[in-house]
Amino acid sequence: MGAAPTRIGQQDPELVERTGFSPEQINNLHKRFLQLSGNKDTISRENLNDIPALAYNPIKSQIIEAFFDKRNQHDSEVGSLEEITFQQFLMVMSHFRPPTLEMTAEEKEAMRKEKLRFLFNMHDTDGDGKITLEEYRKVVEELLSSGSIEQESAKEITDAAMLEVASTNVPHMGPEDFYEGITFEHFEQILKGLEMESRMHIRFLDTATVHCGKS
Amino acid sequence: MPSRMGARAPAGFGRSFWELGLLLLLAFVLLQGSVFPYGADASSQHAKDGCSSTHEGKPNRTKKVFPVLSFEYDHIKTPFEVSLWVLFASLMKLGFHLVPRLSSIVPESCLLIVVGLLVGGLSKLIGESELPKLDSGNFFLVLLPPIILDAGYFLPIRPFMENLGTILMFAVVGTLWNAFFIGSVLFAVCQIPAAGLTHLGLLSCLLFGSIISAVDPVAVLAVFEEIHINELLHILVFGESLLNDAVTVVLYHLFEEFSAFGTVTVLDGFLGVISFLIVAFGGVLVGAIYGILAAFTSRFTSHMRVIEPLFVFVYSYIAYLSAELFHLSGIMALIACGAVMRPYVEANISHKSHTTIKYFLKMWSSVSETLIFILLGVATVGGPHNWNWIFVTSTVFLCLVARVIGVIGLTFIINKFRIVKLTTKDQFIVAYGGLRGAIAFSLGFLLEVEDEEMRHIFLTAIITVIFFTVFVQGMTIKPLVELLAVKKKQEAKRSINEEIHIQFLDHLLTGIEDICGHYGHHHWKDKMNRFNRKYVKKCLIAGERSKEPQLIAFYHKLEFKQAIQLVESGGGGKLSSALPSTVSIQNIQPKKPPPAPEPRERVLPQLPKSREEEIRKILRSNLQRTRQRLRSYNRHTLVADPYEEGLNDLLKKQKMFELEKKIKEMNNYLSVPVATSDSPNLRRARLASGRQTDFKPDEQQNGKKQTSDPQAYNVKPDPVEVPTIQVELASPQSPDSVNILDEFRKDKEKDEDTGLTMKPPSGPSAPPRKQSGEEDAKDPQKLTRCLSDPGPSADEGAAGKIEFHAHR
């Protein structure tokens, strides 16, 4: 581990403001960032790919893609980046903060929307604002870590799932209508019951976890 | 927890009173029946004595008149009484639901205790002293296990594990705090000379504290089932009530030992802690071992489905008894056994066995619970009492105070570690839900102290606390929940989208944790899942199911349920999804122009409504007839469960067909009406009728290539013919093709039949080897023949070409 600027949290109060992390958490994440990037200022896809623990993850590529997706930076740009800075890294991470006790109902709602947006962006790979059947099918296939065996199952499951979304959101479609894809509103609707703000979070530590080398 | 009390339509008020009166009369008669034998018993005893003495006296006795009708009660005494009590308890339970308003105001447990009180009072009036007592042998060995097994088997593992830390905190630390606080303050109270209790030593008070401090699972279950609060709170209180058994057991034995000696050393305290760890983990270990054994056994039961439930019950009970043998925590053993065995056993057993297990568990636990509360009432009236105002009131008061302080203090600490914090409302419900019940009473009953008077004081106080918590807290918790607007339980079942996303989230969060670099919750959970999938499932799950990914298993279960529902509903209704939507599968498939060379998706033409109706009617009437022809079986030949095996078979075969290559020249656009939700499960259910196949006509079964079916996770050899049941479906889809059942019969001959269209349908629709049960198939056969439409100009042609013969 190189000599990390340990007071990056204090140096950049804007970071605290924008991402909602505490200074200690920012410091720890910065340490981790430097580890991953090999003490450089930016991380590329290869850096993330090299994390050994991720090898087992069936949706590894999607997760990595999500870091480089411009839409997750809370700007209105689309497309993807080649490398990300620490700030952008933090922005992505900030989607995974847990709700606090002091949050009001609106804040919780906003947080939920934000997290759902993140998920939506992960599914909507071509960025057109809709999750089409193909894209959804890809998601299910990845989840099933498919060999060719499971492709049929994936297809069925996807069909059933899309059907459900369509039925819930647009119950009275004529036989000639075509349901093009899941929009963000529909997406919100079907995942309403999951309470995303309490589910989609990880515990960010205040104290550093010591790792020698990438773990 | 699914409610054990079925919802009954509230009967008319007057009628219900009538019925209730009748029921009470019946109950009274039964009771007299049970009380009367006591008297008869006495008299027969006399007769016996008389007889035997005369025997000895006179070796050659005089010949009596041959008894045409004799009365011998001793012979059947115990089972008879037990049965009468069980019957009585069940009748009471029935009775409560006949009076509609009562059951919504007063929780059932209260009513049952009142009934017990009445019975006790009644029998005391009659002067009967031989009432069944809630003695500890009965209670711990017979009445308690079913309830705990029911709870453990159906324990929702995910929320339990997610909140395990919190639950353990409440269970262990909370109970300890309660015990010591109550014990010591009571001791202080006892020192007041006015109470007349100075003979109660500190250890006795602590012993009492340990008995009274534990939250009781039976009472919690009984009350919480009716109030339907959200999952988190339910699992918190309920989990606490289950896990505090270990603490209670240890404390109880500890103090019981030591109150004889009067002093406790540090070493004893230390040993107590060790004992606690052994009791808790030992119990879990014993349970887990038996659970794995049960799972392993269930792997081999595919040929003997009838006894599958038995294994579940017996293994669990033995686990409980083994734990009790070593003075480990039997409750924790039972919970561990049920929770461990469940995922594997459910993958192995048949659907019917699953239903059997569910219903038997619910039935036993329901009866047990009823009996427990009634006997509690009876014991209250009968038991030896020693009412000491100060002791009793201070006990009640202290219980409440200790609980509140404990919960608040613990939550304060816990919230530092929890991500989803517990709000004040949550804390209130947790505190208020700390009910005491029959376990405390039995433990008190079990006490063996030299000072009988003390024991009576304790018992009285315990009973009062139980009554207070069950009546006051039990009755008021429901309105309070409403008042505080506590979040209620989500009733809807999980949808496929939610399931997909839950899994997705799991992987996502694990990935993010890995990127962050610290090993959190998700990391370990993921590791365990992988271990489970790689090694454990292979051993414990039979056949192909072991490789089934969870999502697919979920999906299949969902489909299966829907298919069964569809079939059971007589085919007249739509799919069970309560959404009245007209969205069908074609709405989501991207459209392609019809004469496309790759006709994977196509627009399906419409069938005029009148035709649709006719088809529906025909199919429905067929269904009525075939339903009566269900093959009956006796339990020894319950090899092929016709319903299920057939469905499975057909599911498998349908998938086979789906995998086949799409024949491009298949242009048999049979007119297919606008389907209702024509999801894969509907397709399958229709398939079960054997009338039609996939609505995508291009995927016809042409040539039954015996492609190995990788989808068939439930690969069973086809031991018998495809069953005679043709569960039909009045689906708006016309039977557009062959009778699959007939196809199968020829499955050995690789029939290169192009399904339906080209040839004169000699193959498919002239059923050569029809069974008797399939004459009805003839009707749709003719139908299909008519509907077959050779030729490429199928779309528009098809609609016009339907001819219906009247098949009646």
From TrEMBL, chain A:
GO terms for biological process: cell differentiation. GO terms for cellular component: cytoplasm; lamellipodium; nucleus; ruffle membrane. GO terms for molecular function: calcium ion binding; protein kinase inhibitor activity. InterPro entries: CHP3 (IPR052490), EF-hand-dom_pair (IPR011992), EF_Hand_1_Ca_BS (IPR018247), EF_hand_dom (IPR002048). Keywords: Calcium, Cell membrane, Cell projection, Cytoplasm, Differentiation, Lipoprotein, Membrane, Metal-binding, Myristate, Nucleus, Protein kinase inhibitor. It is a lipid-anchor. It is found in: Cell projection, Lamellipodium; Cell projection, Ruffle membrane; Cytoplasm; Membrane. The keyword Protein biosynthesis does not apply. PROSITE patterns: EF_HAND_1, EF_HAND_2. SMART domains: EFh (SM00054). Residues 111-146 form the EF-hand domain. Belongs to the calcineurin regulatory subunit family. CHP subfamily. This is Calcineurin B homologous protein 3.
UniProtKB/TrEMBL annotation, chain B:
Residues 689-808 are annotated as: Disordered. The chain crosses the membrane at residues 111-127, 139-155, 167-194, 200-223, 235-255, 270-296, 326-345, 366-383, 389-415, 427-445, 457-481. It catalyses: Li(+)(out) + H(+)(in) = Li(+)(in) + H(+)(out); Na(+)(in) + H(+)(out) = Na(+)(out) + H(+)(in); Li(+)(in) + Na(+)(out) = Li(+)(out) + Na(+)(in). GO terms for molecular function: calmodulin binding; potassium:proton antiporter activity; sodium:proton antiporter activity. Residues 693-702, 742-753, 771-782 have a biased composition (Basic and acidic residues). Residues 578-685 form the Sodium/hydrogen exchanger regulatory region domain. The keyword Transcription does not apply. Coiled coil: none annotated. It is a multi-pass membrane protein. One of its GO terms (cellular component) is basolateral plasma membrane. GO terms for biological process: regulation of intracellular pH; sodium ion import across plasma membrane. Residues 87-482 form the Cation/H+ exchanger transmembrane domain. Keywords: Antiport, Calmodulin-binding, Cell membrane, Glycoprotein, Ion transport, Lipoprotein, Membrane, Palmitate, Phosphoprotein, Signal, Sodium, Sodium transport, Transmembrane, Transmembrane helix, Transport, Ubl conjugation. It is found in: Basolateral cell membrane. Belongs to the monovalent cation:proton antiporter 1 (CPA1) transporter (TC 2.A.36) family. This is Sodium/hydrogen exchanger. The lineage of its organism: Eukaryota, Metazoa, Chordata, Craniata, Vertebrata.
